[in-house]
Design a protein that fits this description.
heterodimer, A: 6-stranded antiparallel β-sheet, 6 strands, B: 499 residues, alpha+beta, 9-stranded antiparallel β-sheet, 15 helices, 41% helix
């Protein structure tokens, strides 16, 4: 079963263990800020059931930002969409990784109650994860090195790109998009083992 | 004034010893002359007058034995009195040969005269010595003047008052040659002039001491005279120590921690000075010490002192100025009205600017926060709020961060906005404020809001300074939210891996 990925801020999903005014099983209203719709639509990405494209999606999303920061995201089983009757439209994403763009979807014709179902799914069934800035930076670097990200299409400013630590080649050159693809790295980072596909996990 | 301006540090009492007037740059050295001490007694003088010396016969005829009467000694030139010593008690005696002796050597006065007049021979001899000890400045000045005029020669007249009518009565006279002895030491005369200036300005009266006057004393006198004449002084730049309140010391630690030399402006409420055992006040003084630092070892000492100090303790702070730059001082009470006005304006402007700056930063932050309530923040996306923060700090300088910290600590601020501010603080690329930001973020790990604690930990991750590891470890131990605790552990692990 694939997952849907939505970028969030984890702190908006803190429960009544730290918010004493919040009743058990309720979610704070600010959680909905992470599900802010436009034209009753919400942007998400589909993560393969083996999470093989997870790191690539995160790197592409982070590369589409104004600066490199931590990335908080929620993963929810995609079946939530069918269970709640949420309609999905294939709409290409706008990141610098074409394959990631193919994984982009818009949830459409969203009602408030459907949105609340999605919010509860994230709160109760979802995995909410944080990747630190350092990990994100390395992931972008690897995506560039693997040729997934078109460096020229990165939205990041030059000073942020200069902070990326691109993996070194055996000849001492820096692996880069359009230069060469390090297949070994690619296989290790985005292999078939779901445990190995926890983004950033291989860095520790 | 090339370095950054530091606000005025106002301290009660008198400045430390390095700002004693004898430390003034060239303040008294030129006027104080050679460095030896000054005698308070003039050199003995013996003069024999020329021809035509005489004494009044009728006066002589009245003297029987020895009598003590007040007399006046005058020096005249061209019939005009140049200088006079009035009412000096003399014992007067006559010899059988008709010689009259006017003697004050046994009298309790500073003047020790012995004047002999031999009318039959038309001779007069004069010897005297002046002991200035115990004299007021005005009397000492008269003595010096008399001595000087005496050395230049003229008609020497001993006069008294007619006992019944009180009329002026010349008793004896003689012509004094010029240049038979040196006048009083010019250094002594200069010192007395300076003392007169100080007396006239301060209304304090001095008495010449009973010991020789040291070079240091003369330097002080010359410097104080300069201060009360101009209100200005420049001191040799040497390290100095002040005793500050704990709050002031904390501010100083914050200001000087960056290691940058600062223009340090310190005002003392009252500088007291002692001349010839007379203590008096020069009033408030302000020192402008350019390019001054607190050395690393002194900062460490200060940190330790602050840790151990209670709220009401005074804390020792040691400043080290650049020795190439004298420390300028302005004494408010002795400046010209125009200068005093200008200085007050300058200080008011600085203080008002600081207030204005702080108020402006506060107002801008509050407005920005209000506008940001409608903004949805997202990681990696530069919000309008953050752009606004950048503009505020760029406009008001890095010091405005302190104001921001104060505002963030207000309980009624929006947690989402505080969190966004903390994340921005963590990303700021400004080494000069690194320590302050780090400290503030560490403190924010204790915030009541989990959202703010989360942002503080994330911001510390951005700062990537292993010094925060301890604060994070403590925050982890306190944290109730398992999710947040895990995120903090992640940051801690990264910081601990930083070499």
């Amino acid at each position: 079963m694939p997952f849907i990925l939505r970028k969030i801020r984890k702190a908006r999903w803190h429960g009544n263990d730290v918010l004493d005014w919040l009743l058990p099983d309720e979610i704070q209203a600010d959680s909905l800020l992470d599900l802010s719709t436009k034209d009753n639509q919400l942007s998400i990405y589909i993560v393969e059931d083996d999470r093989s494209n997870l790191e690539r999606i995160i790197a592409a999303l982070a590369g589409n930002c104004d600066f490199i920061s931590n990335v908080d995201y929620a993963l929810v089983p995609a079946e939530v969409l069918s269970e709640s009757g949420i309609e999905v439209a294939d709409v290409k994403g706008e990141t610098s990784d074409e394959q990631v763009n193919e994984a982009h979807r818009d949830l459409i014709h969203l009602s408030a109650s459907k949105l609340l179902v999605l919010a509860k799914a994230i709160s109760i069934r979802g995995e909410r994860t944080r990747l630190t800035t350092k990990k994100v930076r390395k992931m972008i670097g690897r995506s560039i090195a693997n040729g997934y990200i078109d460096k020229a299409r990165l939205k990041l400013p030059a000073n942020e790109i200069s902070k990326l630590k691109l993996p070194q080649q055996s000849d001492g050159t820096t692996a880069d998009h359009g230069n060469r693809i390090n297949k070994g790295t690619s296989d290790r980072e985005i292999g078939r083992d779901p445990e190995a596909n926890q983004p950033g996990g291989s860095e520790e | 004034m090339s370095s950054q301006v530091q606000s005025v540090i106002a301290l009660p009492g008198s400045p430390p010893a390095v700002f004693a007037p004898n430390q003034i740059v060239n303040g008294g050295r030129a006027r104080a002359g050679a460095a030896s001490s000054l005698s308070i007694t003039s050199s003995p003088v013996r003069i024999r007058t020329g021809e035509h010396s005489s004494a009044k016969t009728e006066f002589i005829n009245r003297v029987r034995g020895t009598v003590t009467i007040p007399l006046t000694l005058e020096i005249k030139r061209h019939g005009q009195r140049i200088v006079a010593l009035k009412n000096v008690p003399f014992s007067v005696s006559t010899s059988q040969q008709g010689e009259i002796t006017f003697n004050s050597e046994q009298q309790q006065t500073p003047w020790r005269f012995n004047v002999r007049v031999n009318s039959p021979r038309n001779e007069m001899s004069l010897s005297f010595v002046l002991n200035y000890s115990g004299l007021g400045v005005a009397d000492a000045v008269e003595g010096v003047r008399f001595n000087k005029e005496l050395s230049q020669g003229g008609e020497f007249v001993v006069s008294g008052r007619q006992p019944i009518t009180g009329a002026y009565l010349p008793i004896a006279r003689g012509d004094l040659p010029s240049g038979t002895f040196e006048g009083e030491d010019k250094r002594f005369a200069s010192m007395l002039e300076e003392l007169q200036i100080i007396e006239s300005k301060t209304r304090v009266r001095f008495v010449i001491p009973d010991h020789n006057i040291s070079y240091e004393e003369r330097l002080s006198i010359a410097a104080v005279a300069q201060i009360v004449r101009t209100g200005h002084a420049a001191y040799h730049a040497q390290p100095w120590i002040t005793w500050s309140s704990k709050g002031q010391a904390e501010e100083l630690l914050k200001s000087f921690s960056g290691g940058k030399p600062l223009l340090t402006t310190i005002q003392f409420s009252n500088q007291e000075i002692t001349i010839f055992n007379t203590r008096f006040s020069l009033g408030p003084v302000i020192f402008f010490s350019d390019k001054t630092r607190i050395l690393e070892e002194d900062l460490n000492t200060l940190r330790q002192s602050l840790e151990n100090a209670s709220e009401h303790d005074l804390v020792e702070v040691r400043f080290t100025p650049n020795t190439d730059h004298p420390i300028d001082a302005r004494y408010f009470d002795w400046l010209s009205p125009a200068e005093r006005l200008a200085l007050n304006e300058l200080l008011r402007t600085k203080s008002d600017l600081a207030d204005l700056n702080e108020n402006s930063v506060k107002q801008q932050f509050i407005t920005l926060s209000e506008l940001a309530k409608d903004e949805i923040f997202e990681d990696g996306v530069e919000s309008n709020f953050v752009k606004g923060l950048g503009h505020i700090v760029k406009g008001a300088g890095a010091q405005s961060l302190a104001t921001l910290f104060g505002l963030i600590e207000c309980e009624n601020r929006n947690d989402e906005i505080i969190a966004e501010t903390l994340l921005w603080l963590g990303r700021l690329n400004d080494p000069s404020t690194h320590q302050e930001r780090l400290h503030f973020l560490e403190k924010s790990l204790e915030h009541r809001s989990s959202r703010v604690r989360d942002a503080a930990a994330t911001a510390l991750s951005s700062m990537d300074d292993p010094k925060s590891a301890f604060a994070l470890q403590q925050a982890i131990e306190r944290e109730l939210n398992p999710d947040l605790r895990e995120d903090m552990r992640q940051v801690l692990a990264e910081l601990e891996s930083v070499h």
